[in-house]
Amino acid sequence: MKNRNFWVILTGVIIGVAALALTALGNPGNMGFCIACFLRDTSGAMKLHSAEVVQYVRPEIIGMILGAMIIAMLTKEFKPRGGSSPMIRFVIAVIVMVGALMFLGCPLRMMLRVGGGDLNAIVGLVGFIAGIFVGTLWMRGGFTLKRAYTQSMTEGLALPIIAAVIMALSVFLPSLFAASESGPGSMHAPILITLGVGLVTGGLCQRARFCTAAASRDAMLFKDFSMLWGFVAVIVTTIVGNLILGKFNLSFADQPVAHTDGLWNFLGMALVGWGSVLLGGCPLRQLILAGEGNSDAAVTVAGFAVGAAICHNFSLAASAKGPTVNGMIAVVAGFVILTLIGLFNREKA
Amino acid sequence: MLIVDARGLLCPEPVVRTQRAVKDGLSELTVLVDAEAAKENVTRFAASRGYAVSVKQEGADYTLSLSRV
Known about the structure:
heterodimer, A: mainly alpha, two-stranded antiparallel ribbon, globular, B: alpha+beta, Translation Initiation Factor IF3, four-stranded mixed β-sheet, 36% strand
């Protein structure tokens, strides 16, 4: 158990330091790495959406999937599995993305924003925890997406291979992809560093079973606080780091890639929290599980990428100017759909 | 003896099902899981509720035998 706390806290600290370093080296502010934003950027680079400011193949994402895969293979934990309600997972993933792009960040970026002094992210954090609480009520009520079964090696390797191919193409044939000339998509640290950071953090997260949703979820369900230490470690590390670097700016206004609409920051992250509990893990955790050969998680990652494209193609994503009406409608629809999915996927004990 | 078959279930379901099973104060219980993370989580949960856990691996599956200390 002590050993576990060590890995979780070490992973949290390294994620925090890595995020600060990536931001210093060129990544967008308070966005050392954000799973939602970076999947959105990658799906933009592949022209799944045409928001010109958020298009770039993010090696962090690809590195995390591959890093988790390599460590899982070395520790004999790479096990191709799938078949646990893949389509429902896809739908929930789209909804999680709608919530994340309402708030402007996945739970990881929310923690990094808190660490930068962005008070809007505190509002998001409260929403996230509220959403997780609702999710745990459904879990207690017998919610299940049913069993996954052993699958072929091809099934387990499909997403990691696709990720590696996208990475290679983006390096050797960059003209295939769209790349932002301004906005967050144009801001990035050097490619080898971002890929390296992805590989290392992906491997560490695999060892630690790191999950930003499990932190509060397990505390609420089982009084198990081990993951919460990792959650706290990320925030403390980034607060200390930002204070040292003189980047800590405690305010609601003028935060990088953020808006100040409290209600929708709260509701967006509540949707992410609830959806993440139903999916069995936050967006970061889904990347890691996909790297371990879990094809349900791979479908979930595909759902995030498609969800991000939907958000930009139909103006659901918020921007620094604030949320859109379409986005508000989509978030409310997301709550309704999660409720319906919950009602129809229960198993009596 | 009660057997909780949590194979193929993603966290937190294996632990939720174990939690539901031990609610009535069972002295012995078997939990089947097939993922490393589930094995660790159920073991940690069981220990926190005062159960001793012995783990047996058969192929890709783990049989966790819980007994009240």
